Amino acid sequence: MTELVTGEAVALELRPAKLPSRALAVLLDLVAAVIAYILVTVLVVATTASLDEAAQTALAIATFLLVLIGGPIAVETLTHGRSLGKLAFGLRVVRDDGGPIRFRHALVRGAIGVVEILLTFGVVACIASLVSARGRRLGDVFAGTLVVRERIPAGRGGFVPPPPPWLAGRFGGLDLSAVPDGLWLAVRQYLSRMQQLDPQVSLHMARRLADDLAARTGSPAPQGIPPAAFLAAVVHERQSREARQAFAAARFAPPAAHRVPVEAGAPPAGRPVQAQPWAGEPQTSSLPLAPATPPRSPLSSTPVPPRDESPAERPATGFAPPA
Predict the structure, then answer these.
(1) Quick check: 33 and 71 in contact, CB under 8 A?
(2) From CA 12, how far away is CA 72, in angstroms rounded?
(3) Which of 49, 76, 225, 270 is most buried, taking the most CB atoms under 10 A from its CB?
(4) In angstroms, rounded to a whole number, what is the distance separating the alpha carbons of residues 16 and 2?
(5) Where are the beta strands (DSSP E) in the chain?
(6) Rounded to whole angstroms, how far apart are CA atoms 270 and 105?
(7) Cα 38 from Cα 30, distance rounded (Å)
């Protein structure tokens, strides 16, 4: 990885392209340019057969300059540094500040490339790329450009290390509502990559992020605690709170089977609203219920035992005849 500083003083970490991938990309571009040059030459010769020898020579030189030199320059200008070979191998030409190249950058690279690639068969370009710390050839040095990799092999997701055990739960009283999502993302990215950074750079970034986090929460970082450990403990506290909220919401939410569907629209005027039975309860009849105590005979004070009647023999009106 190499660090490029943009015009806004933002440091970018880009991966310069290695010599093998660049050589293969240039070879593919040359093959495409030669094929296009042969086709254009055949077309020009067929259409200018009646011209004299001097005119044909001039057209041949113009065709060579336009196709083999002007073609790559035009392609890199229009695609912002992505030629056919670079697109196939996931490469791109950028400026020293990480921005897209323009016509003047492509013109300088193409003009010097005629000498170090075409006339010397790529020997000068290979030597310059091997000597340069970032793999730049002479055209890149004079144009102020750099060839970087756009497609980086995807690795495992960033693992945020847990805080030390003696810090777990210590920051439960912090107010984390004012911390923006961008700061949380920056803290997580730093914690997942802090082992890959230079120790001095890692310490400086940890202090800066810890100061920003303390300013957002309104509570300064405790003295004697490393900034990286403080960041890990606060991130762990936020994750714990989100987990508790999610568990509480899932615990107190009623199951889907016990939710009563609400029908759209109001009931017609004059019709009483009937209460819907709760799901899972037995359906009760709308007829009046029989008295709970058995009826008594007018001649005797002893209750009359109820008769065993089948459901079909019971009256449908709900009227209970006297004993």
Answers:
(1) yes
(2) 27
(3) 76
(4) 7
(5) 2-5, 11-14, 91-95, 145-149
(6) 84
(7) 12
Residue 70 C-beta-side C-alpha neighbours within 13 Å: 8
Tens of pLDDT, residue by residue over 161-187, are 777 777 777 777 777 878 888 888 888
For range 103-119, the mean pLDDT: 91
* Higher pLDDT, residue 157 or 92: 92
pTM of the model: 0.47
What is the identity of the amino acid at 215?
A: A
- d(CA 20, CA 26) in angstroms, rounded, equals 10
Q: Which two tokens stand for residue 71?
A: 């073609």
Of the candidates 94, 80, 83, the one whose C-alpha atom is nearest the C-alpha of residue 33 is 83
Instruction: Please state, as a whole number, how many other Cβ atoms lie within 10 Å of the Cβ of residue 304.
Output: 12
Gap between the Cα atoms of 161 and 69, Å rounded: 52
For residue 213 the two structure tokens come to: 């986090």
Whose structure tokens read 């709760």? 278
pLDDT tens for 62-86 read 888 888 888 889 999 999 888 999 9
- DSSP strand E in 54-195: where? 91-95, 145-149
